[in-house]
UniProtKB/TrEMBL annotation:
The keyword Magnesium does not apply. Belongs to the sigma-70 factor family. ECF subfamily. The keyword Transcription applies. PANTHER family: RNA POLYMERASE ECF-TYPE SIGMA FACTO (PTHR43133), RNA POLYMERASE SIGMA FACTOR RFAY-RELATED (PTHR43133:SF25). Residues 188-213 have a biased composition (Low complexity). This is RNA polymerase sigma factor. The lineage of its organism: Bacteria, Bacillati, Actinomycetota, Actinomycetes, Kitasatosporales. Residues 117-168 form the RNA polymerase sigma factor 70 region 4 type domain. Residues 17-84 form the RNA polymerase sigma-70 region domain. Residues 175-213 are annotated as: Disordered. Keywords: Sigma factor, Transcription, Transcription regulation.
Length: 213
């Protein structure tokens, strides 16, 4: 399909959308926390991929790392805009999308506290560490695919992911202590088992006659 996509075959575009749109949507949703914005990211990612299809290398496997790399670039732009709305968003009720930290500290939080601490901690990560974490943990890419998506060496992916996990543990613990201290409650003992992220809502499937863009 890679050759057909590069050659401008509309059927290849539809196949790529069917194969990868859900992954891009779940990834974008967990990064931005807004279903409508996540759908916009998916549409923009496929539009940009189609526009730049001749830049796709002829050799390679799945288009997923390349598409996720495009989505990551789009999310960088939306993040800059979102920072200007942080004060307003802080007053809006949480939407219930829980990221997976794979960390016992976060699993000790109640639903509302967990989401608040997760988002606060993620915002304090460096962008490059946050992007690696999101691609590997949320989008499910292996190290090699994440490296391809970001255009960095595999070793850099490993080091950034390790740094992100370590930093998130410390930040989530700080957020938890701050929240509990403000209410005068104590932090419970660590849980013996961890939980995973709540599944993200599904992106509506494309019909056989619908243009993916």
């Amino acid at each position: 399909m890679r050759d057909r996509f590069r050659a401008g075959d509309p059927a290849a575009l539809g196949e790529a959308y069917d194969a990868h749109a859900q992954v891009l949507y779940r990834y974008a949703l967990r990064v931005c926390g807004d279903p409508a914005a996540a759908e916009d990211v998916v549409s923009a990612a496929f539009l940009e991929a189609w526009r730049c299809r001749t830049r796709l290398l002829p050799d390679g496997g799945s288009l997923r790392p390349w598409l996720l790399g495009i989505a990551t670039n789009i999310l960088r732009g939306t993040a800059r805009e979102a920072r200007r709305r942080d004060a307003a968003f802080a007053r809006i009720a949480d939407r219930g999308v829980l990221p997976d930290f794979a960390d016992e500290v976060v699993t000790r939080l109640s639903g509302a506290e967990r989401l608040a601490a997760a988002r606060a901690a993620l915002k304090r990560l460096r962008r490059r560490d946050r992007e690696v974490f999101a691609l590997v943990v949320w989008a499910g890419l292996d190290y090699a695919a994440a490296a391809e998506a970001l255009g960095i060496p595999v070793g850099t992916v490993r080091s950034r992911l390790a740094r992100a996990r370590d930093r998130l543990r410390a930040l989530a613990e700080t957020e938890l202590r701050t929240a509990r201290a403000s209410r005068g409650t104590r932090i419970p003992e660590p849980a013996t088992a961890s939980t995973t992220a709540a599944p993200a809502p599904a992106l509506p499937r494309r019909t056989a006659t619908e243009n993916p863009l």
